[in-house]
Amino acid sequence: MFVEGRMSNNEECKEMKRTKSDEWEVVEWCNLPGDLLSRIASYLELIDFLSFRSVCKEWLIPPSEYNPSGRELWFLLYGEGSQCSFLKLGSQSPNSERLYTVNFPELDGATCLASYLGWLLLVQEGAMFFFCPFSRAKIDLPDCPFTDLSEHVAAFSADPTCQDCVVVVVSRKSEVELELHLLRRGNKEWHKHCHRCVRSTLNTVSGAAFSEEKFQFLDADDGLVTFNADGKSSKSWANYRIVNHGSSKDVETLEYHVRKNMFGVLNMGQRLGFRGGEDDVVSISICGTMILGIQWLHILRNDSVILSETIVPDQQHVALARQIKGVWIQPRYVQVPPGLTW
User: Fold this and answer.
1) Could you give the CA distance from residue 166 to residue 162 in angstroms, rounded to a whole number?
2) What pTM was estimated for this model as a whole?
3) What is the DSSP string of 218-258?
4) d(Cα 280, Cα 270) in Å, to the nearest integer?
5) Ranges of H-type helices in the chain
6) How does pLDDT run across 167-209, given as a tens digit for each residue?
7) Fewest CB within 10 angstroms: 30, 160, 224, 284, which?
8) Which of 204, 224, 220, 227 is nearest to 153 (CA)?
């Protein structure tokens, strides 16, 4: 079932219902029982559910009664004004894959630093905020402590509505020093932490995650640095090197797996409608998301360039490429409690 648009009046919202006397009477669709509406909504895709709720005020099913599968992974394409695209990957079969076009003014001129639990951490014109595209919920954060976002990555520890949520943004201050800015919910100022590491420990930070109660930062060469933000440990930072599982009995096992170059593996260029040709050269900067303990990252944080197979890639084509941004996101409808502030 797919419902789109808003009813202009109740005359357009009626069905026939048989009474006990075997006579038919007119019943308005907007007066359907709540349990029946909830059951109908449970069969809808998320985007269809949003259209369903917009039909009339009686169909505003509480979001708590709609729980899309947490195993799904969607891709949001943005960066060209307010018009964006959602790609729902076919989790069951290719036929279940769908591409939606949605208008999000909140994403016009914004850059996503992190994605988790259906929330995006965005920076726009010097302001930082959380945004849930599906519900349009927004949470503003205190003043952003930096303006240059050329090599910054970020992560947050929990749903932004949780009291214990922590946000970190990390970048390389020099070849041997990392600079981390941390904000806890309830604080009005960011706190800075620095870490000095040897050159072989970590190259340019390309991905971030929160796991095992620690923030974890990775590079493209299997380097890993962790930061314990609880303030109880005497040693907040630790350096590691990720190796193949089973190579040594003494190797610490992590609770997530790193997936590299998922954009190419999943043939996302074609799925998003980029068919190739000289006029279809696209550069996409991609962010990742954690889903069920698996960290989906584009470890090579720098732009991924999609080039047509019919032309020879050169600097001119790369320079003229359309600059677009993308982010993996979990399809969740989340709302902000009234009066919530950070």
Assistant:
1) 9
2) 0.78
3) E-TTSEEEEE--SS--S--EEEEE---TTS-TTSPPPSS-E
4) 11
5) 34-42, 46-53, 262-265, 268-271, 315-319
6) 999 988 887 889 999 999 999 999 999 998 876 667 778 888 8
7) 30
8) 204
